[in-house]
Write a structure and sequence with these properties.
Helix content: 25-40%
Strand content: 25-35%
Shape: elongated
Number of helices: 14
Largest sheet: 11 strands, mixed
Bound molecules: NADP nicotinamide-adenine-dinucleotide phosphate
Number of strands: 17
Radius of gyration: 24 Å
Length: about 450
């Protein structure tokens, strides 16, 4: 769609992503005008401080208030790059959509909680709400789901969606270091926030998964429906055992169609060492989609950072310049189905279990009985009599002291395994809490 009029964007937030976007729009302005069929001009910007580096990258009109920018008669597109799932981000996006402005945002937290409501508002105003940058930064997975894969019925979408936790797990696996030590190192290097909760406890990946599930399965984005488990409890002993058994441990985000509905979970997960995702290391992200006609596709790349994320924001802006707008979550907001919280008790799959078993006659037999009572069959059981270098395994070897036992189950229901583990703990043959990690068949 060619036009003599520029597309006028207002950018709220000039931090990591906002300053990357300013650099991209200035560096590629000529090519963007050709590809988009019209100039893209920056008609207004907003941040809290004018003194920070991002604010100095532009001479565009300054707005102190993001809502004033959102409704300004001088803009066609409001680009929200402030962050936060309420307050100024929510209010300004609502105001922009209400005022008939297209919205582009990188804000997964906002959309994972308010996506359906905001999509309905966009539809009512006949504008678009685009968010390529909100899921896996520079990886174009939103466009793949919104456009390229529309002819398919999707059965599973999964991935490594948080670079910080992937960096920590990669270092733990390679160096045999405990979580706390690697976290401190990641914080010193600037890979992890001072408060790492959002990254290491799964919320950030959960926000992204809520959006992927909405696009893949036609459900309302619902962060509360995502089951979350973080990586704090993973020990070097688990990495050593995983390696011996042919697995890697990743913070995996999975949304899948199951007989009981859509199951969405983020948790430390064992994946086969031979799978493509197993070699996605460090701060990289990766998303895989399984669908009936295409089979499997895998996209990997930078899941965050100023330039990769700006690349995705820019693609949404150029789409609007070209007149390529669509419904935010593919279906009309009123047709998106509600998604119930994932009941993990009905999850089916294989499991890794690590127990510290008191070295007494009959202990292993008693454990095997508890497992058999729930009709769970074991693929392997490994008992380590000596593992002095494995933190988390305790100090094995002496009669009566705990010895590490690792079990891999065949496919079973999670609640059956939990019943078995409860009984094993009550029997008194194990020290501490059993470690349980889901195994994902990839
Ligand atoms: N960083 C990434 O790699 C990445 C990747 C994908 C998605 N995202 C998403 O992109 C968004 C922005 O992230 P970021 O890393 O760029 O954040 P950031 O570096 O912290 O920048 C945030 C910007 O928003 C401004 N801001 C915050 N609250 C404001 C308010 N009430 N009024 C006006 N301006 C306000 C800040 O101004 P001051 O600096 O003056 O306070 C700053 O310019 C978030 O939703 C994030 O989840 C980020």
């Amino acid at each position: 769609m060619k036009s003599d009029k520029p597309l006028r964007v207002g950018i709220a937030g000039l931090g990591t992503v906002g300053s990357g976007l300013l650099a991209l729009l200035s560096q590629h302005s000529g090519a963007i005008a050709e590809k988009g069929g019209r100039q893209v001009s920056i008609a207004g910007v907003c941040a809290r401080s004018r003194k920070k580096p991002g604010a100095k990258l532009t001479k565009a009109p300054w707005f102190d208030d993001p809502i004033a920018l959102a409704v300004s008669a001088d803009i066609d597109v409001f680009v929200e790059l402030m962050g936060g799932d309420k307050g100024p981000a929510l209010e300004s996006v609502k105001a922009a959509l209400g005022a008939g402005k297209h919205v582009v945002t990188a804000n997964k937290a906002l959309l994972a909680r308010h996506g359906a409501e905001l999509a309905a508002l966009a539809e009512k105003s006949g504008v678009t709400l685009s968010f390529e940058a909100a899921v896996a930064g520079g990886i174009p997975i939103v466009k793949a789901l919104r456009e390229s894969l529309l002819g398919n019925s999707i059965s599973r979408v999964y991935g490594i969606l948080n670079g910080t936790s992937n960096y920590i797990l990669t270092r733990m696996q390679r160096e045999g270091l405990p979580f706390a030590e690697v976290l401190a190192e990641a914080q010193a290097l600037g890979y992890a926030e001072a408060d790492p909760t959002f990254d290491v406890d799964g919320q950030d990946a959960g926000h992204k998964l809520a959006l992927l599930a909405a696009l893949a399965f036609g459900v309302r984005p619902n962060f509360n429906a995502v089951h979350l488990e973080g990586i704090r409890g993973i020990t070097p002993a688990d990495f050593r055992a995983a390696d011996e058994l042919g697995y890697r441990i990743k913070l995996l985000a999975v949304a899948a169609r199951t007989p009981g509905g859509i199951e969405a979970r983020v948790s430390p997960t064992m994946i086969p060492r031979s799978s493509a995702l197993a070699s996605v290391d460090g701060v990289l992200n990766c998303v895989a989609v399984e669908a009936d006609f295409v089979g499997q596709i895998i996209l990997a790349g930078p899941g965050a950072g100023s330039r990769p994320t700006a690349s995705s924001v820019a693609s949404d802006i150029i789409d609007i310049a070209r007149g390529h707008t669509g419904l935010p979550f593919i279906l009309p907001a009123a047709k998106l189905e509600s998604q119930k919280p994932a009941g993990m008790c009905t999850h089916e799959g294989g499991f890794y279990i690590r127990l510290s078993v008191y070295d007494r006659p009959g202990a292993i037999a008693a454990i095997a009985t508890r497992v058999a009572e729930q009709n769970i069959s074991l693929e392997s059981v490994v008992q380590k009599r000596e593992a002095p270098d494995l933190p988390g395994f305790g100090r094995p070897g002496k009669e009566g002291e705990p010895t590490p036992v690792v079990m891999i189950t065949h496919r079973t229901r999670e609640n059956l395994l939990r019943f078995a583990l409860d009984a094993i703990v009550k029997d008194g043959h194990v020290a501490g809490t059993p470690q349980m990690i889901r195994i994902e068949a990839l």
